[in-house]
Design brief:
The structure is a homodimer. Chain A is of the alpha/beta class. Chain A is 56% helix and 11% strand. Chain A contains ten helices and eight strands. In chain A, the strands form two sheets. A six-stranded parallel beta sheet of chain A has the order 3-2-1-6-7-8, sandwiched between helices. A two-stranded antiparallel ribbon of chain A has the order 4-5. The mean pLDDT of chain A is 90. At the A-B interface, helix 1, helix 2 and helix 10 of A face helix 1, helix 2 and helix 10 of B.
Chain lengths: 249, 249
């Protein structure tokens, strides 16, 4: 259905359509739409912009991947539906291969996501020939060339389980999560509290600029706990402002 | 796919499955899943419970419907997927017919939702033989026996447009919306900031208890602006508490 341009939430609704298209194409699943909605709500109470704490985390994330031996970018159905082309560009800029990893597993969907990334010229691992011990659903399946041997993994839009198991296997984890209170956000080494559609293009820019020397300096000064605290404070401040609008209306 | 019971968000995920089932049955649409996710996020930052301001609004809503001449309960795909049986019970208790009204319109979906409500013994209007002027999408279509002549309409899980047009046509609007900052929440006469799966059963209980005299008293003391303010404050307080947990972890 055509969304009328007069609708006050036109932009938000058309963005949703991107993910709905991803579902129709078999990249994302129905549950992924609900997860996207959760993210939308947090983006809304954050003011729908890239805050300074997000940019700081993005720069630190790029720095960590730049200095890593085997950085890998994990891609699920939502990420592929929203920013496939941008993820490929980030992957190339950082020399970090892409690996398909999905919660609601099907071989067909893995292949569709891989194909979508390959269409943009990405190097994609999806062999699923290894296992991360200690995780009891489909996402234990990984690629021996990718996440299994990775030292740093970027996991956009992931859940707490996934993050936890990667940590247990000694990997540094970078999460993109609009909920600064989530298990993922709290467990990651670097948490980017931002919309993935803004974060990835910003990370590409940082990846093109930053030198290895600068990367070391950035990481020396980075404190993830403070970043999370600032994110929560930003929500509280934005809510206070909005509450004033409600009361003065 | 089976969600493992060990998953920390097992309950939230199984609730999602209800709506996913609604989509598979043709009651809800993909966009409705995203909207549900937005609600989930607000429920989460509200602490996933019925606050005093929600109970107060529910009681006032029941009072308003009890005293109305033609109260109607508007039902969309998400509401039907989550609380069809409960909506029928509320409808019977308050003698307020149900009317199917959906944003992403199809005759087939209207009939499926009506059938689902009728299965539980509900009186359902869905003739679509009248129009609410001033609204430019499918939800302008209403039933001449229902919303067209209603003086009070309960619109669970609706958008701002819908609420606005009902107000313009002189109707009192009761909204159920987990986002206290939304246009719907701010435009409604009574705003229930609560999860529909908790709100409707609570409203049934109130509807069985309240007398007409009590209803008048409840409405005399009700102030929706204060209810919204308390909801926003509850979010801020809950976030502050959660932020402390994050920082002390």
């Amino acid at each position: 259905m055509e969304i009328p341009k007069s609708h006050p939430r036109y932009l938000s609704l058309t963005t949703r359509e991107k993910l709905v298209k991803g579902v129709r194409e078999g990249l994302a699943v129905l549950e992924g739409l609900i997860a996207h909605g959760r993210g939308e709500a947090f983006d809304y109470i954050l003011g729908e912009k890239s805050h300074d704490f997000a940019l700081e985390a993005e720069r630190a994330a790029v720095a960590l991947m730049k200095l890593a031996e085997h950085p890998v970018i994990s891609v699920n159905g939502n990420a592929a539906s929203l920013v496939a082309e941008e993820l490929v560009e980030l992957s190339k800029t950082l020399n970090a291969p892409l690996e398909v990893n999905i919660f609601h597993y099907s071989k067909e969907r893995v292949e569709k996501i891989a194909k979508k990334l390959e269409e943009f010229g990405g190097t994609v691992y999806y062999r699923g020939d290894a296992v991360l011990e200690g995780i009891d659903h489909a996402r234990r399946i990984v690629d021996s060339r990718g996440i299994l041997k990775a030292d740093v993994v970027l996991v956009p839009l992931e859940d707490g389980d996934r993050c936890e198991i990667l940590k247990k296997h000694g990997k540094k984890v970078i999460a993109i999560d609009l909920n600064p209170l989530s298990r993922t956000a709290r467990m990651a080494d670097i948490t980017i509290v931002n919309n993935i559609t803004r974060a990835i293009p910003e990370m590409i820019k940082f990846a093109k600029e930053i030198t290895k020397e600068e990367a070391k300096e950035v990481l020396r000064n980075y404190d993830n706990k403070t970043v999370l605290k600032r994110a929560i404070e930003a929500i509280r401040e934005h809510l206070t402002k909005m509450a004033e609008d409600v009361m003065n209306a």
